[in-house]
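Per reviewer request, we include the raw input and output of the structure prediction for the construct analysed in the revised manuscript.
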Amino acid sequence: MYSITTLFLDIGGVLLENGWGRAKRAMAARVFGLDLEDFNERHHLTFDTYEQGKIDLETYLDRVVFYQERPFTRKEFRDFMLATRPFPEMIELVRNLKREYRLKTVVVSNEGRELTVHRIQKYGLINLMDLFVVSSFVHIRKPDQDLYQMALDLAQASPENTVYVEDRAMFVEVARKMGITGVHHTGYEETRKALESLGLALKREAK
């Protein structure tokens, strides 16, 4: 049995709430009085390009929201878009496991640049994670296997020594086919127990 040396983690849905997912967009449509069907159609036509880092947030907003006059400002909409909550229990679990087992921690995420940078800074992820392999930084999106391989290469980790915590089942399946141990994250307790079963149990109280 290989010992775990590296922990891959998604950001949205694992460490923090999803940044700009379906529920948040529906809420934005209600708050700002947008036509949800039109909003979602425009989003789906251009969001992949934004997540791959090929356009910036302002261009995304031009295409999806501000292609016509609005009774609200860009700043109001951008602030709403960037406002997300952390999952403190998950962040603390990763922090303690990293310290206990000297793990290398790597973000493997699909997110736009501005959202990612904001979240890294606001929630102190720079002090928790060793590497950020993010779609908008490297211009590849999950489920492209090249993104996972890039994360392995940059971390100098082998699949057998790596665990990947991700809230989307299909992305976990792709990683498993590459030999990475996948944990489908559905909640803190389930993930904590899954990691314990892989040998990553806290052996002492965090100080």
